[in-house]
Amino acid sequence: MQAWHHHPPGGTEKLKIVQVNIPEIDDDEVLVRVHAAGLIWMELYWQLYEKEDGTYKTPIPGEDYSGVIVKVGSKVPKEKRLEVGTEVMVFVTKAFSSKRSTDGGMAEYAKAHFSRMIRKPQSLSHVEAASVPLSALTAWQGLFDYAKLQAGQTLLVAGGTGPTALWAIQMGKMVGARVIATAASEQSFKLLKSLNVDEVINYKEVKLESALENIDVVFNAVGDETTKQALKVVSKDGIIVNIVDTTVGDLSKESVRDSFREPFFRKEEGRTVVFFIVDMNVEQLTKICNLLEEGKLKAVIGGVFEFNDAVNAFKQGETGHAHGKIVVKGPGL
Ligand SMILES: NC(=O)c1ccc[n+]([C@@H]2O[C@H](COP(=O)([O-])OP(=O)(O)OC[C@H]3O[C@@H](n4cnc5c(N)ncnc54)[C@H](OP(=O)(O)O)[C@@H]3O)[C@@H](O)[C@H]2O)c1
User: Fold this and answer.
1) pLDDT tens digits for 116-145?
2) From the CA of 323, how far away is ligand 1's center (Å)?
3) In this structure, are residues 4 and 61 in contact, taking their beta carbons and an 8 Å threshold?
4) Which atom of ligand 1 is nearest to the CA of 185?
5) Binding site membership of 42 for ligand 1 (Cβ less than 6 Å)
6) For residue 95, what is the domain's CATH number?
7) Looking at residue 154, which CATH number applies to its domain?
8) In this structure, are 116 and 160 located in the same domain?
9) Is the dihedral of CA 228, 229, 234, 240 positive or negative?
10) What is the per-residue pLDDT across 18-37, written as a single tens digit (0 to 9) for each?
């Protein structure tokens, strides 16, 4: 089959299309013909792939994808209704150490444990479905598992038009929060307006502390500098949910990565700050899909690229100004 391989260390110059064998599945795994895969531009710079001896694994990029089942292991429970021909959306998390493969969806076929997938709603295209799991689950877990966001609260989403932030904005509006977002381009402002964001702050012109106070929940998709500013605007009982945080340790170490199966809570200037890494949750992803089907949430796609053009897809992500999720189509589709 055709697959993209990344040969770290290095960025897009280390991506290659290769011919490899179709993966063999274990009894509890499922093989999927990939139709579309979500792109994570940052993953080319993750330290995860460095081995003990200083050499590197050569992973297939991607963590979430959508496609059609072509093979089912004998121990996959029948009640999961994962059969040959079933359309599924899949999310594998490479961040946590595992004996299983760290290969993702940028290939003709990909395999995953049955617990990493759900049936794809018919109303979603494969491109839309591939854009959902990683980004939408990150927003869901950040807002509801950790911040316990409620109606009437004020939510600030920093980095408002990135793929994860766009879900956080929609989910915040959905539960009745007042939603403020940061962005810096006309295109971003237009997109945020279309999502009925209550207030937009141009992060290039305005410091958060000069415009805001008493924020209940900050969803920070940007980084440490934004955390510093957010500490000045979050209320005493509020919380900053970080999905990017370089202050919490070296994620390249297996032991540290395993410890991130639990969120990392700390107090800074008397405020609660949490950093967490998203994981698959079948129940939550099913709820998100139901909301998509009901029209209460929508997938925002920032770009769709042919399989052979994946390098340009990564380059678009690397600009740091993606407006929605970038998706790469499966080969030959
Ligand atoms: N912890 C986890 O489990 C987890 C899960 C998912 C993602 N992440 C991380 O979260 C980060 C965001 O990822 P993403 O893929 O959603 O988005 P992304 O593609 O990294 O972000 C692009 C967006 O960021 C905005 N932006 C850039 N610099 C900014 C700044 N200084 N202040 C405010 N906004 C800024 C841009 O808006 P303008 O065009 O308007 O400038 C653009 O819309 C990445 O670092 C990713 O690795 C972590």
Assistant:
1) 999 999 999 999 999 999 999 999 999 999
2) 10
3) yes
4) 40
5) yes
6) 3.90.180.10
7) 3.40.50.720
8) no
9) negative
10) 999 999 999 999 999 999 99
CA of 43 to the centre of ligand 1 (A): 13
Q: Is 248 in the pocket of ligand 1 (CB under 6 A)?
A: no
For residue 102 the two structure tokens come to: 């760290």
Number of domains in the chain: 2
Nearest CA to ligand 1 atom 22: 162
Domain membership flag for residue 199: yes
Per DSSP (E only), the strands in the chain are 2-6, 15-19, 29-38, 64-72, 87-91, 109-113, 117-119, 154-158, 178-183, 199-202, 215-220, 234-242, 264-268, 271-275, 301-305, 325-329
Q: Coil, helix or strand for 194?
A: helix
Considering the chain, what is the average pLDDT of its residues? Answer: 94
Token pair of 33, please? 């013909």
Residues 151 and 234 in one domain: yes
Q: With a 6 A CB cut-off, is 274 part of the ligand 1 pocket?
A: no
Q: Is the CB of 156 under 6 A from ligand 1?
A: no
